[in-house]
Amino acid sequence: MKLSTKLVRLGTETAFEVLAKAKKLESQGKKIIHLEIGEPDFETPDHIKSAAKKALDDGYTHYGPSPGLMEVREVIADHQSSVHGKKISPENVIITPGAKPIMFFSIMALIDQGDEVIYPNPGFPIYESMINYVGGKAVPVQLKEERGFNADVDQIESLISSNTKLIILNSPNNPCGSVMDKDDIRRIAKIASGNDIVILTDEVYKDLYFDDVHESVFDFDGMENRVIILDGFSKSYAMTGWRLGYGVFPNEMVEPVSRLITNSVSCTSSFSQIAAIAALTGSQDSVGQMLEEFKIRSDIVVEGLNQIKGVSCISPKGAFYAFPNIKDTGYSSQQLSDLLLENGVALLPGTSFGKFGEGYLRLSFANSRENIKQALDIMKKVLE
């Protein structure tokens, strides 16, 4: 069998590979503390699960429209209008099975062979993978530790060429936990407008700021015509297994992206969409409780990491990740992550998030305080 050469350009998400290795070790009787996967360690709130069960009983078991059920798109539009302070039409909302398809369909709809996409590095690995897969040119902008793992806007501007079609932003950031400054976002909006560039803003962690308030490039005047908002339910409502995400698109992208859905997944599960209404209109107490717990764990992680020989870590400002510097340990990112897995701690090398992640690790603190402290103790012993 001869496979398509395009597959050579398709990357992966290392978190799932490390998870598989960790599960294999567990099956052999080894205890593993999981700090590798970007998944809240909380249950989906009961009122959301109840809504899904009722939807099944009410007959939401059939195909729906490719862009999503209109009653759900209306609720999402109201929610996003509240978040951004400007009216968003439900016609601009497209619901997908998870948020990743929003990335893939946006890039497929916009990028031709040789078109350039500026994206954050270290950053979510699927950005680069999808750009390469469709034949685009992935242009990384380095997130430097000395800038709090935020991009230098002057560098972004210097990377723009006549072939630049798309800029990807992600705040709060995975893997660094960094948060973009409002003035930087304003400058990027102005640069995009002046160069006729579309922006994909990945806001799936928008409910998980530790101190700052959510700032979005969509909020500036006129940007609704060139900004795609990516959001979903996995992180805010602990719904990773539900596969439920959505995008807010400029008018001219709605029909072609809906067509891409028709040609691929057909539609998103109807009963899951009904549960999304309960998520957005029901109690938000679980979101606040989860955020407070993540804040506490973040402090534990940062304090513990900074007590380990050769390791330093700045405090994340959002999401549920720490991105410690391990350059003084004498190990590469891959070497140290492999060594720690052998000793019972699963986490990710910084290079899982791009070439500028070398010298770092990503720890997800979506685990109990007790397990996090135990993992830090193991790391300390390994590096003594």
Keywords:
single chain; 384 residues; alpha/beta; Aspartate Aminotransferase, domain 1; Aspartate Aminotransferase, domain 2; 2 domains; seven-stranded mixed sheet; three-stranded antiparallel sheet; 12 strands; 39% helix; 13% strand
Write up this protein:
By secondary structure, the protein is α/β, with parallel strands linked by helices. It has 2 domains: 5-44 and 285-382, Aspartate Aminotransferase, domain 1; 48-281, Type I PLP-dependent aspartate aminotransferase-like (Major domain) (Aspartate Aminotransferase, domain 2), CATH 3.40.640.10. Helices cover 39% and strands 13% of the residues. The chain is built from 12 helices and 12 strands. The strands form 3 sheets. A 7-stranded mixed sheet has the order 2-8-7-6-5-3-4, sandwiched between helices. Helix 5 (125-133) links the parallel strand 3 and strand 4 (137-142). It is globular and about 55 Å long.
